[in-house]
Every structure is written in C-alpha cells, then in structure tokens.
Design goal:
D-Maltodextrin-Binding Protein, domain 2; nine-stranded mixed β-sheet; three-stranded mixed β-sheet; 12 strands; elongated
C-alpha cells in the first residue's frame, strides 16, 4: 500500500511538471505574437503608397527615409508629390494610395466621393506651415510689406502694377508674380483664405513644380512668389523673404512666429496627411507606418521647415491609430 502511494505521488509530480511546461510555452508564444508587448518577431514587408501635397512632401519624404532605414527595411514607403488636389484623385479610387498629403482640409465633394466609394478617411494633422512670400536676393526694397500690399500685388482688380505703385521710392519696374498652380493646396489656401476668392492677376506665372518657382524668382530681380516656409528655408542661399506687417509691425516668417495664435497667424495654416483606414486595417505595414509617422512627426517637423504641434495633440492621434 505504501509503495502504491509513492508511485501515485511520483506520477502526480511528473504530470504537474508537464502542465507547467505547457503553460510556459503558451505564455512565450503569446508574447511573440502580441505586438503591444514589444516582442513582435514577425518582420513587416510590402509597400506604402503616399502622394499629394508638394508642400508637405519634404517632411513626409524625410520620415519615410528614416522609417525604412531604422525601422522596417523590408517595407518600401513610396512618397510622391502630385499636389493636394491631384493626390486626392489618386487616393479616392478603388485600390488607391494609402495616404494623401494635403496642405488644406479635404473638400466636401472629396469627402462625398470617399463616402460613395465606402472609403473611411482619417485626417491626421501633422504640422503648421507659414505661407512665405519670396524675393530675389538683390531686392532690398520690398523686404517689408503690409498684408494688404501682398494681396494687392496678386489681386486682379488692384492698381498695383509696378513696385513704385506701392511706394514711390521703389523702382518704377513691373512686378513679376509667381506661385504654385491649381493642383496645389497652397494655391487654394492663398486664393480662398488670403484673397478671399478674389481673382488673381491674369499674368501670375503658376507652376506645378516648386523647384521651378525657386529658380524663376531667384533669377528675376523684380519677381515675387509664394509657397510654404520649408521651401524658403531650404533655398535661403537663392531667395529673400518678405517680413509682413499685419498691423503691429513687420513679422519675419520663422518657426517661432508660425503658429495658429502667433505673430504670423494670418498666413499660418495646418497641413495634413489623410489615411485610408481600410488600407491600415488590411495591410499591417500601413498601420505600422501611420503610427511611426505620428510618433516621430515633431522630431522632423522643424528640420524640414514646419512648426511642430503640441505633444498632447500628437499623442491623441497616436492613441487613435493604435486602436484601429
């Protein structure tokens, strides 16, 4: 009888060890497959397609480069810059792009198109940009202009034709105007918000490519153009900028003054990227990139000429993306 008890105890002990070992294996397996634990072993692969705003492009291209270099080398993030409106046309189609960068809010008709197609769109505010008016570096007379001066230079029904029409001390030379074309949210912001939908002069030279605008103004001593602050910052060796007087003295566009409640507020605007939520749920690499993008957006904003957002605002968007 005593011998039988010993055998039974030994059997029970061996059985218990087996159960504990099995539990240990389950726990280990769960940690490896749980992305929230930070021990994810499966590598991501595939592609992420981004198009849209030329203004936002430098910021998005920089983050994509960093993501592929340091985070997921098997994911290809392809960033293009057809312009905000042209980008939405590629985004709001079946099997369209995963993200559309935009230097304006999505329009009502674009949102309706998304709804009709069953595309769930998530707006991600990524930074703040200051619309900047740029000059030839030898232009030393128009470095300080009023907000109304800037408007009148471009507005169709104004009497401003020559520089001397603004100030008799300025050269009696025709002002040559440049800007991005209608594909760009920057054009729409200027036309809708600053000009309040008043027509531009017929001879404004509108271009698709921002680098072309940089070249045109840098080679024209009587030229003035406009685009996002980042393109000015990255071309200060070729361009000067207008300090704009909004009523309390001239304000230089800078990362310190570009803010929705700052000194450069009238010419400040938020910029965005729009995410196809269905793509993020269907393709793990798209969701992963969306989270990475927002977690690092403020790190690279200033580097590429954008004013960063409040940290708590960014964190709220990160939390929403993780919950998709």
């Amino acid at each position: 009888m005593l011998k039988m008890k010993k055998v039974w105890v030994l059997f029970t002990f061996v059985l218990l060890l087996g159960v504990l070992a099995a539990c240990g294996d389950d726990t280990s397996s769960g940690a490896e497959s749980n992305g929230d634990s930070g021990s994810e072993t499966e590598e991501l692969s595939g592609s992420v397609a981004v198009d849209g705003s030329g203004t936002v492009y430098p910021l998005m291209a920089r983050i994509a480069e960093e993501y592929m270099l340091t985070e997921e080398e098997n994911v290809s993030v392809e960033v293009a810059r057809s312009g905000t409106s042209a980008g939405f046309k590629k985004f709001l189609v079946e099997d369209g792009t995963d993200f559309n960068d935009a230097s304006r809010h999505i329009k009502e008709e674009e949102q309706q198109m998304a709804d009709d197609l069953g595309i769930e769109v998530k707006e991600l505010k990524v930074a703040l940009d200051g619309l900047t008016f740029v000059l030839h570096p030898d232009n030393d007379w128009a470095t300080e202009l009023t907000e109304q001066d800037v408007i009148d230079i471009f507005k169709a029904d104004s009497d401003i034709v020559n520089w001397s029409d603004i100030n008799p001390d300025f050269p009696d030379e025709k002002i040559n105007t440049y800007g991005p074309n209608e594909n760009h949210g920057t054009y729409e912001f200027f036309y809708e918000t600053i000009l309040e939908e008043q027509d531009l002069k017929a001879d404004v030279n509108l271009q698709q490519d921002y680098s072309t605008l940089v070249t045109l103004v840098s080679e024209d001593v009587n030229g003035i153009g406009f685009f996002g602050f980042g393109y000015y910052v990255n071309n200060q060796d070729q361009l000067g900028a207008v300090n704009v007087n909004f009523g309390d003295g001239p304000v230089e566009p800078s990362l310190d003054t570009i803010a929705e409640d700052g000194a450069y507020a009238p010419f400040t605007r938020p910029v965005f990227t729009y995410l196809n939520v269905g793509m993020a749920k269907e393709k793990p690499q798209v969701k992963d990139y969306a989270v990475y993008l927002m977690e690092h957006i403020n790190t690279f904003a200033g580097e590429t000429g954008f004013a960063p957002l409040p940290d708590e605002e960014v964190q709220a968007m990160v939390d929403e993306l993780k919950g998709l």
